[in-house]
Amino acid sequence: MRKLLAVRLFAALGLLAASVAHADLFTAGQAYDKKEYEKAFGLYMELAQLGQAEAQRNVAIMYVTGEGVARDNVAGYAWAQIAAENGVGAEVQNILDQLGPHISEKARKRIDEITGQFGRAALESQLMPTVFPGQNFPTQQTPCKLAKAGGTVYPPDAQRNGMQGQVYMEFTVMPDGRARNPRVVYAVPPKVFDDAARRVILRSEFTPALEKNVPVPCTAGTMVQYQLKGVQTSDYSDLKAFIKKKRAEAESGDASAQMLYGLMISGLPQVRQPRGDAMPYFVKAAQAGLPTAQFLVGYSTMLGWGCECNEPKGMVWLQKAAAADQSDAQVMLANYILRGTPGEAEVAKALTWLERAARADNHYGKFYLAALLAAGPDATRREPKRALAVLKDVMRDVDDDPTSFEIRAAALAMLGDFEGAQKDQRRALKMARDLGWETASQETRLSSYVAGKPWTGDLFAF
Questions:
Q1: Burial class (CB in 10 A: 0-12, 13-18, 19+), 22
Q2: At what angle do helices 384-398 and 194-203 cross, to 10 degrees?
């Protein structure tokens, strides 16, 4: 049995690695091998502009050879110079040596323009996160910590089938020491333990983060493990070897291994390294075009998690990931756009991203879409009936979260069913109190429904 469980764990991890293997770098190489040079050049150029050294080398070569693009020795020289900054070897040096003596002053100005836009210094300034090795958050903030883990029930189907697993969750710990909006980043095996892990996080107690001795919201991540009785961590003696193998593959430049290794060292309790130690691997995978890695880099940079907080840089990575249909990035972009008092244009943009995430069957996309349709700030875009339909599609997965009943209450109130709205809001309020939440916002909404008035605003603002 123990050997079978270990095999299943590693098989699941292998599937996770495979799921992120189809990076743009891989696709570009395939296109080149098929002699689809124009497509290959476009893909390589996109990655070269993100600082991916191999792509920069290939862009330089293709400019010089005229494959997939009009031959341009000046641009080829510029990209060879950029690639050389990143340590790419003989081929780009050959381009520099051969073309260098023939570069005119006019050409030099154009080269300087390209390197000034995409060279290492430019990317460090405009794109690359400043990583804090060995840290989760800046030193001026005392991070939130788990004080008491919530109880959990082993999913019966998983227990009957002898399945074990792990779910990596990210969530926000509020000043009241309780988690909000727990989100599954990855799970092995997928979707087996997700709901149970969410319940653990919602029922856990935390020491809130402190900034200048004042409790503040804190983003946190943790791995929730599911182990059958009689099976110990030592039964996974091959896990250490597996991690070592993935590190070697990551160091050799394998983008999917970089992604997986970063996830393992920042999430597995057997390793448990700070986010700052995982960030360099996420960045490399993001530069290679892996949308989930781009999301993780953008998300971390927006929050200052393991790196310096820099919203403009984070937005670039999030937009890259969202454009590649990474649905978690689409949800985060929508939430970012809706901060404060969004106007009609901002609401329209947020709806577009949430609709795309919902079409991809993203659980959180549907959850946030339902909230926006129920109580969003733009009256012309509210659709309370559709909000109820969208919420129903995910309600079974989130019926332990008070916010789900608050969304339904807001939609019912918007439809004039204040009795139904009060019933759901009271249920949400009781659940929130049982979870130890600070409940002022829930009480305000209930008062509105008792007075026969709909409520509008951000249902995820606590």
A1: middle
A2: 90
Give me the chain's average pLDDT, please: 87
Determine phi and psi for 29, rounding to 5 degrees: -65, -40
Which candidate, 438, 446, 374, places its Cα nearest to that of 404? 374
Q: Quickly state the pLDDT bin for 7 (edges 50, 70, 90).
A: very low
136, two tokens: 């989760």
Q: CB neighbours of 235 closer than 8 A, spacing ≥ 6?
A: 2, 5, 6
Q: Is it the case that residue 174 has pLDDT exceeding 50?
A: yes
Q: What b/e sequence results for 416-427 when a residue is b if at least 16 CB atoms lie within 10 Å of its CB, and e otherwise? A: ebbebbbbbbbb
321 Cβ neighbours under 8 A, 6+ residues apart: 291, 292, 294, 295, 298, 328, 329
Angle at 211 between CA 205 and CA 213, to 5 degrees: 80
Reply yes or no on whether the pLDDT at 82 is more than 90: yes
User: Hey, what are 233's tokens?
Assistant: 């961590």
Indicate if the pLDDT at residue 222 is higher than 50. Answer: yes
Q: Which amino acid is at 54?
A: E
pLDDT one-digit tens code per residue, 360-417: 988 889 999 999 999 999 999 999 999 999 999 888 877 788 999 999 999 999 999 9
Q: Is the pLDDT of residue 235 over 50?
A: no
The stretch 266-295 carries a mean pLDDT of: 88
Q: In whole angstroms, give the CA distance from residue 460 to residue 462.
A: 6
CB burial class (10 A; 0-12, 13-18, 19+) of residue 353? Answer: buried
Closest CA to 342 of 334, 332, 352: 334
Question: Of the given ranges (15-29, 127-141, 172-186, 290-304), which has the lowest mean pLDDT?
Answer: 15-29
pLDDT the model gives residue 20? 41
Please answer whether residues 461 and 441 qualify as being in contact, where contact means their C-beta atoms are separated by less than 8 angstroms. Answer: yes
Give the residue with greater pLDDT, 241 vs 359. Answer: 359
Nearest CA to 364 out of 317, 331, 400, 336 is that of: 331
The answer to whether 224 and 154 are in contact (CB under 8 A) is no
